[in-house]
Design brief:
alpha/beta
């Protein structure tokens, strides 16, 4: 497409506009989007409330830096705390920055006890910057950039005995995605998360939940931690937070926040007033009466439809798993073939690893659009995609 961009992505579509759950490319072709900007466009495209919030704030103040407060930034921090747990908030620009912040804060909080290490999990994905990459399990992401930040140990997800062996006196934090995204849509069980929380309390380590992809309504609850009842010490958020504009957030439980001092961390653009205004509009949507209940019902409709397809196409589908509108379909063959088949039928979807199709539609997706996806996937599998070992 262009020699001006570094070739770090494999892509060919040029998208020019969107509305609801659909996008249009430069040739005028319309696509049903079950990727949602990698779970960013929670309210689809062209949402009136989000767009109006951006326009209004852009006409008032676009940037002020963090040398000063802005009204949207203050309001957003207060809103997040009111929705989550007693905490203080650091606003940044992305998920990987939120993870970097969480890692720095964990070391700062555990500094006097010499806690510098981290326990993370197999199939984890936490980001591409050096600290976040160090906590990411997949070798193909890590190896070209080694040596990375030392002191990270990986355990199998949902294996509490392995975690107990790994967490020690030097562990600053245990970091886990309640539902792994890039790693194949793998939910951590409530029992595992409860056991992990007890283990961290017993051994003095912090518990960090990375909800960058699974948070803010994606699993059918405001925060994925609500499914287990476990409240983390630190929570990272990003992707859908600002309705498509770049924003991340780190929530630090109030009992730990006093460890952070002026100058310990910073961000020039973090909490930008325009992105904060957009985020407030997103939170208005998420907290509207009945919205999350309706989202959960749509998630069940998608999950049940996929499981019916799994019974019909046993030769192709190994497993269907997930929560809310965060669903993974594991195939015996390459998931890329299935994604290509869907694309031929005007539907965009993502892979998560070699064999998992990752479905992350906008939270406002219609049942008729879910049915269109199910019908298209049935047609693709009837043609044989995904069945090869």
């Amino acid at each position: 497409m262009s020699d001006a961009l570094l070739p770090v992505y494999e892509r060919d579509l040029v998208l020019v506009q969107g509305k609801g759950s659909k996008v249009v490319d430069k040739d005028g072709r319309t696509w049903l989007d079950f990727a949602a900007g990698i779970a960013v466009n929670g309210f689809g495209y062209g949402d009136r409330k989000v767009v109006n919030a951006i326009k209004k704030q852009a006409g008032l103040l676009i940037h002020a830096s963090n040398l000063y407060h802005t009204e949207p930034g203050l309001a957003l921090a207060e809103r997040l705390v009111s929705l989550a747990f007693p905490s203080q908030v650091f606003l940044c620009n992305s998920g990987t920055e939120a993870v970097e912040g969480a890692m720095k804060f964990s070391r700062r909080i555990g500094r006097e006890e010499g806690r510098t290490d981290f326990v993370c999990f197999e199939h984890s994905f936490h980001g591409r910057t050096m600290g976040a990459l160090s906590a990411t399990w997949t070798k193909k992401y890590r190896e070209p950039f080694e040596p990375l930040v030392p002191g990270v140990r990986f355990c199998p997800l949902n294996d509490l005995a392995a975690a107990a062996e790994a967490v020690g006196e030097r562990t600053a934090a245990v970091m886990v995605e309640p539902v792994q995204g890039e790693g194949g849509i793998r939910p951590a069980t409530p029992e595992f998360l409860k056991g992990l929380a007890a283990l961290c309390r017993e051994r003095g380590a912090l518990l960090v939940f990375d909800e960058i992809q699974c948070g803010l309504g994606r699993t059918g609850k405001m925060f994925a931690y609500e499914h287990s009842g476990v409240v983390p010490d630190i929570l990272t958020l990003a992707k859908p937070l600002a309705g498509g504009l770049p924003m991340g957030a780190v929530l630090v439980k109030d009992v730990h926040a006093s460890a952070m001092k002026v100058g310990d961390h910073g961000s020039t653009f973090g909490g930008n007033p325009v992105t904060a205004a957009a985020a407030l509009a997103v939170l208005d949507h998420l907290t509207a009466p009945g919205f999350l209940d309706a989202l959960g019902a749509k998630g069940l409709y998608l999950l049940r439809g996929l499981r019916r397809l799994a019974k019909r196409h046993k030769a192709a589908i190994v497993d269907v798993r997930g929560l809310g509108l965060m669903i993974g379909v594991e195939f015996r063959g390459p998931a890329g073939q299935v994604a290509s088949g869907l694309r031929e039928r005007d539907i965009l979807a993502l892979k998560a690893g070699e064999h998992v199709l990752r479905l992350l539609p906008p939270l406002v997706v219609k049942r008729s659009e879910i049915k269109a996806l199910l019908d298209a996937l049935d047609a693709v599998l009837t043609g044989g995609a995904g069945a090869a070992a």
